[in-house]
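Protein modeling request. Please complete all fields; requests missing the sequence field cannot be processed.
Requester role: graduate student
Desired output: 3D structure, C-alpha cell encoding
Chains: 1
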Amino acid sequence: MATYTTEIASDSIPSDNPIHQRLLQAYYLAKPYIKGSLLELGCGEGRGVELLAPLAGEYVALDKISSVIEALKAKHAGLDFRQAVFPPFDGIDDNSFDTIVSFQVIEHVKADGDFLSEIHRVLKPGGKAILTTPNIKKTLTRNPWHVREYTAQELTDLAKKYFDNVIMKGVGGNKKVMTYYEQNKKSVERITRFDIFNLQYNLPAPLLRIPYDILNRMNRNKLNTSNTGLVAEIVHEDYILEEDADKALDLFLVLEK
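Delivered output (257 residues):
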C-alpha cells in the first residue's frame, strides 16, 4: 500500500526511521496500561497491532482509510478492524472498553472536544485512555495536515472538561534523539528563512500540503545522507517517558474514567 506522505511515516523508508521509532515507542509505553477490551482510534497501517493486541482480551481498531482497513483485515484474521470517520464512534456502545489508545490522532480531529467526550462515553468505569500528540513547543514549522497542536496545559485543560483523572506526561528523547532534533531544527530553519511573507501560517492548509510534503521529504533525505548514520541508529528505546511534558517532543496523556 502506498499511503505514505511525510505525515504518515514509513517503517521502510530509511529517512523516516526517527519518526517511525518515535511513533512506535508510544505503543511500548502504553503496554502496562493494556487490559481487557482494547479500542484503538486511528490505527493507521497497524504499527502497534502485534504489540498490543496479544495483551487484550478483545481488540477493535478504527481508521478512516478503507484500503488500510481492508489490508489489516487480511493480515490479522480474528481482529476487528472498521473503517470509520469520527467522532462520533458509531456502533460502539457506552461503557464497552477497558482501554483506549489513540496516537497522533487528536491533532487531526476538528471536533476535539467531541472526540474526548466519545472516549469517555465508550470507556468502562475505571477504564483508561492513552493519547499522544505533538507538543507544539517542539514543533519546527506549521504542519498543514494538523487542525491544531497543543501545549501540555492546553490539552490538560481540555481533557479536564470530560475526565476527572487526567495525567499529563511526555515522550522525549535521549542524547541521540535530541542531536537529531537539533540537526533537523537547523535544517528546517535554513528552509523557512526564505518564507519572508510567513506564508506557512497565512496560506490555507490545503495549499501548503504538497510543498510541505516535498520539502519535508527533501529535508529528511538530506539528514539521512549527511549525519553519519544517526538516522539509521535511532531505535524506539531512545525515546523516553518524561514527567515534564513541556520539554517533551510529544504529549503523553493518560485519562481515567
